[in-house]
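Work package 3, deliverable 3.1, input record:
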Amino acid sequence: MADQVAGAIDIGGTHIRVSLVSDRGEVLTAATLPTLTGAGSAQVCVRRMHGQLVRQCAQRGLGLADLRGVGIVCAGPIDCRRGEIHNPYTLPGWEAYNIVASLRACTGLLVTLEHDVNGALLGEVFLNSWQGKRVLMISFGTGIGVAVYDRDRSFRAGTTYHPEMGHVVVDACLTNACYCRHGGCFESLWSGSALQARAQALGYASFDDLFARWQAGETAAQGEMERLQRYFRAGVWNLMTIFKPDILVLGGGLMQRYYDFCAGLIRRDLDGLEDFVESYQIFPMALEDGSAVVGASRLVFGDAALTA
Ligand SMILES: [Zn+2]
């Protein structure tokens, strides 16, 4: 039997990936569109997504109606249940835009929306055959995105199904600014952009510079790196003790360079604490760029247990 095919769309703050993905997780076609922001930009982007889906179907000798549906993953905050985007931080002008209804109206297909970190985790679960496991993913990028796959479904919280676990507080005495209004939250300390800003405020060229100087044994870098490691251990500890996952996935741009360092830190920190965290494995994200579109396709093929 021929593979079934889904449209898969990953909407980020700078670009939008549009792909066709088979039910075996194979990315068949791919294109990248620029993300437009501001009034009316969502409507323009949806027209372009539709155009891309039509074009990519034609490349594969398919019509739009041959697709099983379209899965969209998007940078939050979003309301998966209503199909709306509420993200003034990276998608200004898209607020309250119902992307599910819009894309359904122009394609005639079933359309499903999911948070991008949940989508990436669904992709990782599928690509690694982790169905039946409990998997925690922490993605260190511009912010910190956290998602949990609990055997057959994505962990949900609140009415919009968008947990905010990247904002767990790791040092309540800090008064640094975060848009969550809680100083000392994990994201405000350990997102890629937070580390960069912090290192630069201390006079280093970048976080890479601070890290390299610490590794080289420079005395001035020791105190700051010790502090940062304490914050990292606290953030991961909070999440690991709450979810006790079988598998921890570390993803996001920061982990392309610091996976080994961070995985080592976690292993040392949790060593001997099996009463608290049980046995677990740590992996880097398998497909840094591709997991989200594969995850978006899994929304269509029905292994995401999305219903409320
Ligand atoms: Zn925060």
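The chain has a mean pLDDT of 92.
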